[in-house]
Amino acid sequence: MDLNELGESLIQGEVDKVAELTKAALDKGVEVQRILNEGLLAGMDVVGQRFKADELFIPEVLLSAQAMAAGMDVLEPALVGAGLKLVGKIALGTVKGDIHDLGKNMVAMMLKGAGFKVIDLGVDIPPEKFVEVVEKEEVQLVGMSALLTTTAPAMKTTIQALEEAGLRARVKVIVGGAIVTQAFADKIGADAYGEDAIAAVDKARTLLSTV
Amino acid sequence: MIKSSYTTYATPRFRILSDDQIHEIHLASLEVLERTGVEVLDDEAVELLRSAGARVSNDGKRVRIPSYLVEAALRTAPKRVTLCSRNGERTVPLEDKKVFFGTGSDTPFILDSFTGERRRSKLQDMINAAIIADYLANIDFHMGLGLPEDVPAETVDRHQFRAMLLNTKKPLVFTAHDEVGLSDIIEMAAVAMGSREQLRQKPLICLYAEPTTPLCHSQTAVRKLLLAAKEMIPVVYTPAPMSGATAPATMAGTLTVSNAESLSGLVIGQLAQKGAPAIIGGSISIMDMRRGINCHGAPEQHLLSAALASIAHYYGIPMFGAAGRTDSKVVDEQAAIESALSCLTTAFAGANLVHDVGYVGSGLTCSYDMLVMSDEIIAMVKRIMEGIEVTPDTLALDVIDKVGPGGNFLLQQHTRNYFKKEHWIPELIDRNTYDKWVQLGSKTLGQRVNEKVKRILSEYLPEPLAKEQVSEIDAVIARRERSKAD
Ligand code: B12
C-alpha cells in the first residue's frame, strides 16, 4: 500500500482522513512500524521542515499535529501489540499561581503531533500535583510552563518536590514560557528549555533518548 | 455677513467603523453573552448575576447574560472618569474622545539604557521608570514598567506600587496580585492623598485587571474587580485577546469576543456597585502565525484598538487602548515605525487611556529609550491632532497681499505672532544642516534619545512625598510582610 497518501493527507491537516487512512492501512495488514515511519512521521517531518522554512504557519502545523495524534490513536493498540515503544509520555502543566495557558496548550498540541502521550494537567498546578502524576503514571518527562516572574520560582519548587519524593531520577524536566531563559532553566536544575512549541518537541525528543 | 451651515473641524476626523457596523458588533456581543455566555469562577459574582436575572449552568460556572442586564450596566456606568495627580490636579479626564498616553505594566525584562543588555527587572529600574515618566511632558499617567525580581514575591505588587507612588505625581494605573494586595495598595494611596475620602474625591489610582480570553473571568480577577467597584476605585477591566489564537482570526470576531468580555465585566462591576467607575477596551491584537507571539506592533493592533475606541464612544464609556510599543527587541527603525503608527492611529481614534508606551520585545521588555523616543513621537502626533485653524487672521490675506509675488514672510509681524503657535518645534528629531549635524557628533536619533534618558536620570528629581507619609506607606508593606511570614 502506498503510504504517501497518508503522509500527504497529514500535511494537509485532514484529521478524519488521516484516521481513516491509518485504519485502512492496518486493515490491509501493512506493518505498524511502516505506517508510523513512512506515513505519519514522514508527513510530520515535512510539516516540521516547511514550518521551519516559514512556508507553513502555526494553525496549519497544529492541524497536522492533530491529524498525527488522530492517526496515533488508531495505531496505538497495534503498536503496543507489536511490542513497540510509544514515543514517550509527558506530564505538562502551567505552574502554581499562573493561569496563562495558550503557550502550554500549543506545546501540548505539538507534542501530541510528534507522537507523545500528553497528560495535560491544566493551569495553576502545585508541585504536589506534578509529584502525584509522576508517581502514578509512567511519564518520562515533566513539562512546566510559567509566564510570570512571580511564578517562575514555582518551577524550582516543583523540581525540589520531585527530588524530595525520590522521583527526580525517573524523569527529565523541561521548562518554557515567555519569562524563562536557558540560564534560568540551568539555574533551577531543569534538564531542558524550549523557546517555542517546535523547540519543545526537539528538546523532548533529545531528552527521551537519554532517559 | 451671514454664513450658513458652516462646519469647523477643530481636529482631524477618522472613522474605522460606521455607526451601523458598531451597532452590529454591539448586537453580536450581546448575542455571545446570551447564547454562549461567560465562565465566572467566583461565587459572589455568580450570585450577583443569578439574582439579577442571568442564567447559570448546573455546575455554577457558565453564566448566560440577558441583554437587558448589559443595557442596565451601560446606563449606570459613569460616562466619565477623572484621574488626578498626587497633588490633586484633575489632569486625566477620561471622557469623550480625549486622549492620554502612559506607560505599560509588569515587564519581566528591561533593556538597560546604560549597558544595552536585556536583563531581568529590578526595583531600582522601576524607580527610574517612574522618574522618567514624571519628567516627560507627553506622558500623562504611569503604570510601572517592571516586575522586579529583587523584592519578596508575595508582596511584590506593593513594592511596585511604592516605587510608582514615591517617584511620580502622575495618576497611577496599577496591577495587584489579588484582593489583599489591592486593599494594601488602596491603603497606601490613601496615605498619599490624605485619607480614603480624599482618594475618592481625587482618584489618583486605577486598577488594571483582566478577564481571560476567550470569555472567562478568573476568580482572582473578579475578586479584585468586585473590591474595586465597592471601594469606587476606577478599574480597567479589559482583555488581551490574540486574534487567531484566543479569539477568531477575523477582526470583527475578535472585536466581538473582546467586547463581550468587557461588557460582562462591566455588568459584574455595576451589579456590585452602581456607578462604579469603569474603563472598557483592551490590549487587543493578533498572534503572529509564524512565531506564536502576541504582536505588539502589528497594523491589526492599531486597527483593532481604533475600532474598540469607536465602540466605547458609542457606549460613552472611557476606553483603554495601547500604543508606543513594538515587537522589535531593540529601539531601532522598526520600533520607531510601530510606535509612530500606533500613537497616531490611537490619537485619531480618540482612545482615552492609552498605555504601553515604552514596551519593546512584544511586551516582555521595557526600555527608557523607547519611552523617551515615543514621547517625542506623541509630541508630533499632538501637533497633527491640533488640526488647522481657519479664520480670517490665519487665512492671512492681508499679509499675503502685503508681501505679494516674489517676497518672503520672514520679517512679517504675522509670522512672528504665529510661527510658534502653528509650527511644532522638535527636541530630538534632527533638522540640522549636514555640516552642523557632523559638528554635533553625527549622532543618530537613538543616540540622542539615549543621552536624554541619561540626562533625566542624572538631573531630574521628582517632587517627594512627605517623610511621614513615606513611613506610613512603608508600615503598610512591613505589616503585610510580617503577617505573611507568620
Ligand atoms: C494573554 C496574556 C494574558 C492572559 C492569559 C490568557 C490565557 N488563556 O493564557 C490574561 C489576560 C489572563 C493574563 C493575565 C495576567 N497576566 Co498576562 N499576558 C498575556 C500576554 C499578553 C501574552 C501571553 C501569550 O499567550 N503569549 C503567546 C504564547 C503562545 O506564548 P508563550 O506563552 O510564551 O508560549 C510559547 C513559548 O514561551 C513556549 N512555551 C510556553 N510554555 C512552555 C512550556 C514548555 C515545557 C516549553 C518547552 C515551552 C513553552 O512555547 C509557546 C509556544 O511557542 C503576555 C505578554 C507576552 N508578550 O507574552 C502577558 C504577561 C505574561 N502577563 C503578565 C501579567 C503581569 C499578568 C497578570 C499578573 C496581570 C494582572 N495583574 O492581572 C495576570 C496574571 C494571571 C495569573 N495569575 O496567571 C506579564 C508578566 C510580567 C511578569 N514580569 O511576570 C506579561 C509579560 C505582560 C506584561 N508585560 O505585563 N495575561
Descriptive overview:
The complex is a heterodimer of chains A (211) and B (486). Chain A is an alpha/beta fold. Chain A is 57% helix and 13% strand. In chain A, helix 8 (182-187) links the parallel strand 4 (172-176) and strand 5 (192-193). The mean pLDDT of chain A is 92. Chain B is an alpha/beta fold. Chain B has 2 domains: 75-386, Trimethylamine methyltransferase-like (TIM Barrel); 392-422, no CATH class. Chain B contains 18 helices and 19 strands. In chain B, the strands form 5 sheets. Chain B has a 7-stranded parallel sheet. In chain B, strands 2-3-1-11 form a 4-stranded mixed sheet. In chain B, helix 10 (299-315) runs parallel beside helix 11 (333-349). The longest helix of chain B has 22 residues, at 251-272. Chain B is globular and about 85 Å long. The model of chain B has no long low-confidence stretch (mean pLDDT 96). The A-B interface holds A 54, 57-59, 99, 102-103, 106, 148-150, 153, 178-179, 196-197 and B 108-109, 120-121, 147-149, 153, 156, 177, 212, 218, 242, 244-246, 249, 287, 289-292, 364. The structure holds cobalamin (B12). Cobalamin sits between chains A (97-104, 106-107, 143-145, 147-149, 174-179, 194, 196-197, 200) and B (105-108, 147, 175, 209-210, 212-213, 240, 246, 292, 294, 362-364).
Strand and helix map with partners:
The complex is a heterodimer of chains A (211) and B (486).
Chain A: H1 4-11, H2 15-27, H3 32-52, H4 58-81, E1 89-95, H5 102-113, E2 117-125, H6 127-136, E3 141-145, H7 153-164, E4 172-176, H8 182-187, E5 192-193, H9 197-210
Helix pairs in contact in A: 1-2, 1-3, 2-3, 2-4, 3-4, 4-5, 5-9, 6-7
Chain B: H1 19-35, E1 38-40, H2 43-52, E2 55-56, E3 62-64, H3 67-76, E4 81-83, E5 92-94, E6 100-103, E7 109-111, E8 118-120, H4 123-135, H5 156-167, E9 172-174, H6 179-193, H7 196-201, E10 205-209, E11 216-217, H8 219-230, E12 235-237, E13 242-243, H9 251-272, E14 278-281, E15 285-286, H10 299-315, E16 319-322, H11 333-349, E17 353-357, E18 359-360, E19 365-366, H12 368-385, H13 392-395, H14 397-403, H15 413-422, H16 434-439, H17 445-459, H18 467-485
Parallel strand pairs in B: 1-11, 6-17, 7-19, 9-10, 10-12, 12-14, 13-15, 14-16, 16-17
Antiparallel strand pairs in B: 1-3, 2-3, 4-5, 7-8, 18-19
Helix pairs in contact in B: 1-9, 1-10, 2-9, 3-9, 4-5, 5-6, 5-18, 6-18, 8-9, 9-10, 10-11, 11-12, 12-17
The complex binds cobalamin.
Cobalamin (B12) sits between chains A (97-104, 106-107, 143-145, 147-149, 174-179, 194, 196-197, 200) and B (105-108, 147, 175, 209-210, 212-213, 240, 246, 292, 294, 362-364).
